[in-house]
Structure formats: structure tokens, C-alpha cells
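Late entry, written up from scratch paper. The run itself happened at the end of the previous shift, but nothing got recorded in the book at the time, so transcribing now.
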Amino acid sequence: MLGFKDLMALVGEFLLHWSAMEQQLGESISHSESQELDPPRSRGPLKKALERWQGLDVIQGNKKLASEVIDQIEQLRALRNLIVHGLAGANSNPDDGAEPYIKCVEGGWEAPGEERKVTVSELKHYSEAVDACRRGIRHPSHFNYRL
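Output as recorded:
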């Protein structure tokens, strides 16, 4: 049985991996563009930062892998936004014996839509996937886990 604190920790793990990926994106851009940012950051919308990153010299010769990293980040961004803006509860011990999950509301609280459950297995899978994106941003050849 998974404890509630363990379930909360998995949510935090995903979000910390996301933050580390954004930090790596900023560092990669800053380093390649010879900027001294403290702390390094991508500044602005994620999509624009990813476009800047894809145009860096280090990416040349690795365009296909870089595109795969970007595609995976875009897929994961939807989940990140769902969790950040729509987290509505969790169940670490469902009565029906199902896998523990967090519950999110599509559209957040401003325009609530359908509820979506994200299981522990999914959270672990998505955490690994976003961390692979961080590694892929450092260098596309390090991108080694796909959704």
C-alpha cells in the first residue's frame, strides 16, 4: 500500500523534474549565447525557448533527436499544466483496489471540464520522461526515454 505522503512526493518529483528541465533549457541557451544570467533561465514562453534551443550550434547534426525532445516536452507540458492548474485531489488507497492516483480537473477551476485520474505508474513514467528531456536538452544524444 502506498501512503498519501508517498503519492504527494511523486507529484513533487514530477514537478521538480519539470523545473530542472526548464533550468537546463535556460542554462543551455545562456551558455551557447554567451549570456551571463543568474540564475540561467529561458525567459519567456516555453515554445520560444525551445525554438531558440533548437537553433543553437550544439544542436546542428542532431536535429532529428532535438525534434523528438521538443515533441516529448510538448506532450508533457499538457500533463504539467493539468497538474499545476487542475489538481483536485488524490487517493492513495482506492476502495476498489485500483492503483493509487491523483485527480485533476481539465481546464482548471476557471473552466472546469472532465476529471482525469493520473495513476502512480503514469506519474513515475512521466517523471522519467521529463528527466530524459532535461538530459536531451543538455545534449540530444543523451535523450534516452520516450513516452
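The chain has one domain: 4-138.
(Scratch paper discarded after transcription.)
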